[in-house]
Amino acid sequence: MNNESSNSAAQESSESPQLARRGCWLRRLHRISGLALLVYMTALFTGTHLPKPEELMPIEGNDKLLHFGAYFGMAILMAIRCSEFRSVSVMTSLAIWSLIALTGAIDEVTQMIPAIHRQADVADWIADLLGGACGLIVWKMCSAVWMRTSGHVCGQSKHDGRVES
User: Fold this and answer.
1) Are the C-beta atoms of residues 50 and 56 closer than 8 Å to each other?
2) What is the pLDDT of residue 95?
3) Is the separation of the CB atoms in 72 and 134 below 8 Å?
4) Confidence (pLDDT) at 82
5) Which residues make Cβ contacts (< 8 Å) with residue 57, sequence separation at least 6?
6) Contact 125, 105 (CB under 8 A)
7) Maximum CA extent, the chain
8) Is 142 part of any domain?
9) Neighbours of 83 (CB within 10 A)
10) Does the reported pTM lie above 0.85?
11) Rounded to the nearest 5 degrees, what angle is found at the Cα of 128, between the Cα atoms of 102 and 47?
12) What's the start-to-end Cα distance of the chain, in Å?
């Protein structure tokens, strides 16, 4: 056994129970992230296609904050889901953001279906894009803090070769 692998094994075996609990919490989050994302996107798509949403939830003034917040949450859920399989690198973040852009565009375009009695708004799509970008930035910041404080990236030891760059 070489010196590097013995140091790695020693560090992993000396993890505190607190670090083990943190990793366990994140593994549970990963397990439910797919279902949570599916439910979230279904609720979002359904809510944006109801014929008269103001009857269900009165929106006074500008609804751009709702768009921002909805896509902020979607970006974080997508990043959590992706982090189960790989490090959320810059390229992965751009792929997530592209999916958010496509989802927002499809959402706005399908609102133009006459039976829905809604209208597409480019400003809503821009709010979606900004919310998604901010969600990814917050995810990146939180995962960096997580890695620094726990020695783990999304439940993985920083010694297993999958460290974010």
Assistant:
1) yes
2) 95
3) yes
4) 87
5) none
6) yes
7) 69
8) yes
9) 23
10) no
11) 90
12) 27
Average pLDDT over residues 88-102: 94
Supply the pLDDT for residue 155: 44
The answer to whether residue 140 is domain-embedded is: yes
6 is a domain residue: no
Domain count, the chain: 1
How much is the pLDDT for 38? Answer: 92
**Confidence at residue 53, expressed as pLDDT on a 0 to 100 scale:** 60
Domain ranges, residue 90: 15-157
Tracing tokens 């994302």 back to the chain, one arrives at 37
- CB-based contacts of 147: which residues, under 8 Å, 6+ apart? 153, 158, 163, 164
Place of tokens 């400003």: 123
| Of residues 47 and 26, more confidently modeled | 47
> For residue 124, is it left (φ>0), alpha (ψ between -120 and 50) or beta?
alpha
Q: Look at phi and psi of residue 61 and say left if phi exceeds 0, alpha if psi is from -120 to 50, else beta.
A: left
Q: Where are the alpha helices (DSSP H) in 84-121?
A: 90-110
**Which tens digit of pLDDT belongs to each residue from 116-145?**
778 888 999 999 999 999 999 999 998 888
Q: Which residues lie below 8 Å from residue 58, measured CB to CB, with a gap of 6+?
A: none
